[in-house]
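Researcher: I've got a protein sequence and the SMILES for fe (ii) ion. Could you write out the 3D structure of the bound complex as structure tokens? I'd like something to compare against our soaking experiments later this week.
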Amino acid sequence: MTTKRTDSSHRSHITISEMDLIKFIKRSWGDETFAKRLGWAIKTTIESKTYKPPLLPETAVRLSEMASRRDCDVRDVENVVKQDPIVAAHVLSVANSAFYSRRSPTRTLKAAITRLGITTVRDVAFKVVAQTQIFKVPGYVDRMRELFQAAQAAGTIAKQICRILRFESELAYLCGLLHDMGEAMVLNIITNNEPLMVDGLPPLSAVEPAVTFFHGTVGARICDLWGLPPLIVDAVRFHHQPERSANSSQMTLVVAVTDMLLKHAGIGVPPEPIEDPLEHPRFFELNLSPNQVKDLLAFAENVAESEGE
Ligand SMILES: [Fe+2]
Ligand SMILES: [Fe+2]
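Model: Sure. Here is the predicted complex with fe (ii) ion in place.
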């Protein structure tokens, strides 16, 4: 796959504050020394001028630009997609899936692109990025598989929430897909840090508190370094605390609700059904009616069931 570094002059302003570092260390009941080393390693790595996050493949970069311009020609899209055989194969397969191919099967790439539209073609390219570049950390293979499945489900659920709300956003799938990418990236930082690996790969249980605490900031920093739209960066950064977002974007709330629904249905995490969902303030914040909430809970449960098949 051809890759290129996106705008190397662009450095992200997103950092891990000293306050957050102290908060994290205080919360690490167990081994405070390990927590200090862990927190410090994550902070210094992502803030280092020489930090190189996984590369965003050129196909994804170019399709992302094309989708935001909206004046692209199907031939231009085809020229980009055909450079990347994995993405091309996925585009053809999605165009011929039950959801899109009510009519005859699509044999050419051009017809597949026309059927799907640029937004979906870009989403397919990012799904390939998620599978091949993001959720791929050696040593944590099972967790990576779970996280990738949860990421796809999150994309689908975020899109459904927007559909129900009639909130037109072509970035919904991407926000869902990428919202927890920081979990993989924190593990990626750990496995590339020699002092932390001196006794071998730390068990997931030892590093999970750091993954939970830092994944929003780390994921957002990488999305920002990749030059993705601020809406995505904000949604990734604040999906667990949408009230901390200065922009209070509706998409950040959509992703926060997506995350709740994943937990509710046990996708990527052990199931934690929402108590009194009709009274939950997050649903109110999005102005979802009781019937819409019920539909979304059922939708998430269906996604969970189809994942297990
Ligand atoms: Fe999360
Ligand atoms: Fe999540």
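Model: The radius of gyration is 20 Å. The first helix runs from residue 18 to 27.
Researcher: Great, I'll pass this along to the crystallography team.
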